[in-house]
Amino acid sequence: VNLQIKGDPVEQFYCHCDDCRAASGGPYVAVAIYPEDAVTAQGELKTLTIRTMPRKWCARCGVRLIGEVVDFDQRGVNAFLLPQGAFTPEFHINCRYAVLPVKDDLPHFKGFPAKFGGSDETVDW
Predict the structure, then answer these.
(1) What is the pTM of this model?
(2) Reading across the β-sheet that carries 54-58, which strands appear in turn?
(3) What does the pLDDT look like over 99-113, one tens digit per residue?
(4) Could you tell me if 19 and 33 are in contact, meaning their C-beta atoms sit under 8 angstroms apart?
């Protein structure tokens, strides 16, 4: 699959929710959010919804590529696949679900920041 991205991301963060963990098989995911029309993929994709978010996978190798943020017409790109230096996360979200707390200098929101409709409540690891 050839993933093409136009422009800059709207947001970049780490997500610790149980949906992302189930989809990735890891303790958290790195996400770069783009407008829906900024991300296109050439090649065969499979779509799977594990819990709530439709996700697109490479049909050949199984790598998770895109999460469809349907309510906001956005796509979350697996930021671990971006070129080195392109992912500059601003915060962590859904830390109340964290199974492997990450201690860094970024804000760690219990749920979502206010700009995502959350409370801005943070956790202190």
Answers:
(1) 0.92
(2) 45-49, 54-58, 64-69, 74-78, 29-35, 11-15, 91-93
(3) 998 999 999 999 999
(4) no
